[in-house]
Description:
Chain A has ten helices and 14 strands. Chain A is of the alpha/beta class. In chain A, helix 6 links the parallel strand 7 (158-162) and strand 8.
Amino acid sequence: MNSTQAIPFLNIQGVTKKYATKVAVNALSLKIPPGVIFGLLGPNGAGKTSLIRMITGITAPDEGVVEIEGRAFKESDQQWIGYMPEERGLYKKMKIAEQLQYLLQLKGMTGKAALEATEYWLERLEIASWKNRKVEELSKGMQQKIQFIATIAHKPKLIILDEPFSGLDPLNSKLVEDIIHELKEDGATILFSTHRMEQVEQLCDEIALVDKGIVVLEGNVKDIRRRYRKSIYNIVLEEEAPLPPLKGVTLLSQKGDSYQIQLDSNLDARSFIQELNQTCHIQKVELHLPSLSDIFIEVVSQRKSK
Amino acid sequence: MKKIQIIIIREYLIRVKSKTFLLSTLLTPLAFVAIAGVAILASSWKEDEAYQIFLQDETGVILPALEGKKGELQFISSLPEGKDLNSWLGEDKSHGYLKTDSTFLTADVPKAELHSSGNIPISLKSTLEDTLTRVIRNIRLAETGITAAEMKRITQEVKLKTLKVTEEGTERSSTGIAAILGYIMGILIYIFMFSYGMIVMRGVIEEKTNRIVEVIISSVRPFQLMIGKIIAIAAVGLTQFTIWIILLTTISAVTLPLLTKDLKAPPTTQSLPGGMPSEIPMEDQNQIAEEIATGVRQFDISLIFYFIFYFLGGYLLYGSLFAAVGSAVDQESDSQQLIWPITIPLMIPMMLLGNILQQPDGSLAVFCSIFPLFSPVCMMVRLASVQVPWYEIVASGVALILTFLLVIWLAGKIYRTGIFMYGKKPSIKEVARWIFS
Lengths: 306, 437
């Protein structure tokens, strides 16, 4: 971790993007280490897409710089970035294999290499039999897979996926997820933007929460969850029994023999457990970590009320 | 450059391989031939049925000059057995009754009445008037002692031959054919610029509504995508044009000899002696055939090169504007409010075509053939119909090239902002602001 912090893969420094009526990204800075799956989170309209467009070189920042591996972004860097936008787009009237070959050639592959990659990935994603069909004949989930292939088949070093699982059934989600892990193993850095927090917790090593054009929360997923813990414990007793009233302890919920309690900030967890142990048979006590979803809601609504 | 090339190849192949391209490429020359065929057929179409006129002639000299002649009009001196006038007129709408009374020969303005149970066609009325006029004229001439031959000499019209002086020398020119050619060229280049411009616009809108544009722009610059598309569609146009030239040359190589032979052949309907002329005198017909032949012989191959140059120049100019409009809207129906600054300058030369053809060297024509927004149509018309000074051609060409370079650059600026704008329809003012953003 320390070595990666020395040279971030992607170093976004004070980047600003203004549109006629609003500031989409406001002097935003962010470091993304190499070889991680990085979650870019934020409410709708937070500036995620604007930020991604500047990272991919689609638009240029009004201020600030995007550095890749320690140097400024240049046009040829587009070659090894794979970008799957939230709004999917393919030529509806074009055959699938031809279309993939075309998109990969635009990424700098030769015609032959593009064709080979196309065939390999169509096979991998179990849609090889459709290669001579037109996109308009495909289901939404299949189009999604085509789009995914177009994003990753040229072996990019940076893969940006905006809601990659939307429209996929659980089986196909698993298929795509496995490939994402595989790409990470092969050394790719993956920037993953989504609203589905459980996927972020499952997939991402690090996250950044963006709101109103700035980063409001950033870091390792586990660290963040620990940082936002609130002396809440989940307790399971041997048998269902009323919890003895204890000073400084609030019962939040009870379901059968499982309880969730919150301790006052001045109370030590160990002394509480000892106290409880005298009256009940404790089966399990664990510190409750807030889900990313809870943190997301908390941070964003706090900022709203400000 | 490599990427532009990849884009051009896709954009070109996807269009050339489409059914629409195949159909329009093959059907357009066929439609041309069909229209020409219909026009020729229609002009040679003659009503089979003759108009029968029962002429009650009190002068005693008119009927003998007309009775028994074959043709569109047949004169009879008596009604068929057992018919009275009313029942005879009633049984057929092509029956007429005409009475020339004794004053018909002497009156200053001879007058007569034609009765019929149907409407009398205007052409019939004028043919009948012409016929009677000739009869009266010949009778009156005979009275003064002038023969028909002498009269023909007196009323003979002057024939003017037009010659075109070029650097290579003097040659026969065919003003009429040249004007028609100019007109056709002008219209063709207009249609080409307009229809291919629209194809560019639709292509841009398609990529935008498909949302594929964002994927492509993550690999290439917006300008590369725009220019690749514009060049590919120009190539589609040239392909189509080449196929048409080949098809039309083949078709005309086969049909033109037949056509001119037909025109040179003696008219099938002989003119009535002292009576009805066929519509065009034989010598005039020969002259028309000769003019067409001269026009075809004279068709300067350089006109094709000029056509390609002005098509490309005009298309690049207007095509990039169409691309800019396409980038600013989400669907074709929204383009209306942005498209008029393109369509109006496109259409103005069409309104001026008549003027330019009448005075191809007038100051209006010269101005329009140099002004780059009008020059593709106007210069083409002039090049086809008159000898345009070289410096005017150079000025026009340079102005066109400089303008399309400027316009492509401006369009590129609008395009790169426009393709990411979704939702509201922008105003012209807003679009103009994108140029400076």
